[in-house]
Design goal:
- With 262 residues, the protein is of the alpha/beta class.
- The protein has a single domain, classed as Rossmann fold.
- The protein has 9 helices and 12 strands.
- A 6-stranded mixed beta sheet has the order 6-7-8-3-9-10, sandwiched between helices. A 4-stranded antiparallel beta sheet has the order 2-1-4-5, with helices on one face.
- Strand 4 and strand 5 form a beta hairpin.
- Helix 3 packs across helix 4 and helix 3 runs parallel beside helix 5.
- The N and C termini lie far apart (52 Å).
- The relative contact order is 0.16.
- The protein binds adenosine-5'-triphosphate.
- One of its GO terms (molecular function) is ATP binding.
Length: 262
């Protein structure tokens, strides 16, 4: 059996008066791997994820398992792809576990599951993200970081074939950032999921990505293993900063910013 993968060829998409991505193609993404999208503000990272999720009109090919996702009906696409947005909804009168159960229940293939099975799965995901203690807390009483963790739980509980996460760690403290990235990595491997994550924290990208894609102005400026995509030269070009990528005393690569470049 051939390994499942996602391949993007000639993707063009954007907004009525602003074409953001033009004929974009990405290296093939293998199941079980984590691809981290980085790049300056407004580079097109969210636009790319939203196009793959069918939330924006797009032309080209997003091939998965022999099918072009762009041509699928919304319900079929929703069974394969889950997108966690950057901005999280507020004002929803549910507890944390109810929110996760609701996310699972809308998955087309899970509607017939027993209440006990769905509850157990939702509880397991909350525990995995170390927020089991928040199960009965209303969403409106959560902090920003806690809400981000619940939103991630809603995305991963569905165990989609393709998981798209838009800045899932932006509101989290360092410990929870590690919780999230390690959970995402484990789930990708366990379920053979294709995971694409947008991050601004380049040290997280260096630590957790199998592949890094650097997007600048709607185009790929670098793509490959983290140590090849994140270098002094690529950071200077993309972000106009002076930075070094060096190994710390424990051998891990880290970015050190020295200032703005001229
Ligand atoms: N709804 C919209 N209508 C029109 N233009 C939009 C809309 N949403 C985003 N854009 C524009 O599309 C471009 C890409 O935006 P996008 O949100 O994809 O960038 P990003 O790389 O995710 O940025 P950030 O790191 O700031 O979140 C930007 O120029 C932005 O102004």
């Amino acid at each position: 059996m051939t390994e499942r993968s996602l391949a993007i060829n000639g993707l063009t998409c954007g907004y009525p008066k602003h074409e953001v991505l033009k004929e974009l193609s990405l290296p093939r993404i293998c199941a079980g791997s984590v691809t981290v999208m980085i790049g300056p503000n407004a580079a097109g990272k969210t636009t790319l994820l939203r196009a793959i999720a069918g939330l924006l009109p797009a032309r080209g090919e997003v091939n998965f398992d022999g099918r072009n996702l762009l041509a699928l009906a919304p319900t079929e696409l929703a069974g394969l792809v889950t997108y966690m947005p950057q901005v999280l909804p507020q004002g929803v009168a549910l507890t944390t576990i109810e929110a996760v159960i609701t996310a699972l229940r809308v998955a087309p293939d899970r509607r017939g599951d027993s209440d006990a099975a769905v509850h157990a799965e939702a509880a397991a995901v909350l525990n995995r993200l170390n927020i089991g203690h928040l199960s009965l807390t209303p969403l409106d009483e959560l902090s920003g970081g806690q809400r981000q963790l619940v939103s991630l739980a809603q995305a991963i509980v569905r165990r989609p074939a393709v998981l798209l996460l838009d800045e899932p760690t932006s509101a989290l403290d360092p410990r929870h950032q590690i919780d999230v990235m390690s959970a995402v990595r484990e789930i990708a491997i366990e379920d053979g999921m294709i995971v694409m994550v947008v991050l601004h924290d380049l040290n997280l990208a260096l630590a957790w990505a199998d592949t890094v894609v650097l997007l600048v102005d709607g185009k790929i400026a670098a793509a490959g293993p983290p140590e090849e995509a994140i270098t002094s030269a690529t950071l200077e070009t993309a972000y106009r900063v002076r930075a070094r990528v060096e190994r710390c005393s424990q051998g891990r690569l880290q970015v050190i910013y020295d200032g703005k470049s001229v």
